[in-house]
Design a protein that fits this description.
The chain is an alpha+beta fold. Helices cover 23% and strands 29% of the residues. The chain has a six-stranded mixed sheet, with helices on one face.
């Protein structure tokens, strides 16, 4: 049976979806964008600060599901400019302990609210 995960420590859904869904031990986190959950605004401008906010949001969602970043097994990163990959990757590396999750990184034409980065995570609940 699936269970919706919700926390006020991450931005509220911008549409008809859950912040995450747990099914058995699997936790599927929706893509997060760099919205500050306290203000509901996008305050981060550069790719580093946007990536950090996205990962803080994901940390909060995973915590609400009883997980942490160490439980992540797969991520997908969406970037509007692959030229910013190295800067995103530097911040990303600060959040995932070894062994790091499998990852795909894709350049897209546009993201919600015209942000630079969106990241989704799949984790295994311990």
């Amino acid at each position: 049976m699936k269970e919706a995960i919700h926390t006020d420590k991450a931005p509220q859904a911008l549409g008809p979806y859950s912040q995450a869904v747990r099914h058995g031990q699997m936790v599927f986190c929706s893509g997060q964008v760099p919205i500050n959950p306290a203000t509901g605004a996008i305050e981060a401008v550069g790719i580093e600060d946007q990536t950090r906010q996205v990962l803080e949001n994901l940390t909060a969602v995973l915590k609400a599901a009883g997980c942490g970043m160490a439980d992540a097994v797969k991520t997908t990163v969406f970037l509007t400019d692959m030229g910013e990959f190295a800067a995103m990757n530097k911040i990303y590396g600060e959040y995932f302990p070894a062994p790091c999750p499998a990852r795909s990184t894709i350049q897209v034409g546009r993201l919600p609210k015209d942000v630079k980065v969106e990241i989704e995570v799949i984790a295994i609940h311990p």
